[in-house]
Write a structure and sequence with these properties.
Elements lengths: L5 H6 L5 H4 L4 E4 L2 E4 H11 L3 H6 L6 H6 L1 H7 L10
Antiparallel strand pairs: 1-2
Length: 84
């Protein structure tokens, strides 16, 4: 969900405002995971995500984060899936 979604404020209340937009975050019943661990948590929810985790995809998150500006220009915008 976007950072400006009111639910994001509630889910990320445990993080300082200055940290919220610095990396990816994933929340589940155990709490909030950020950066590489957040990416790993997201991968666990995807079909086939376990394979990406086994290959170490969550370890490349720091590289992805450092290059998000370039990646944002080459990755196409797709319709956002509905948020439950």
């Amino acid at each position: 969900m976007p950072f400006d979604d009111p639910r994001a404020d509630r889910l990320l209340a445990c993080l300082p405002e200055s940290v919220r937009r610095t990396s990816v975050h994933a929340a589940d019943q155990r709490g909030v995971a950020s950066a590489g661990e957040g990416f790993r948590l997201i991968l666990t929810r995807l079909r086939g995500g376990w394979l990406l985790i086994a290959l170490g995809a969550h370890r490349v998150y720091p590289w992805i984060a450092r290059h998000r500006g370039v990646l944002g220009r080459v990755v196409p915008d797709l319709p956002r899936p509905p948020i439950a």
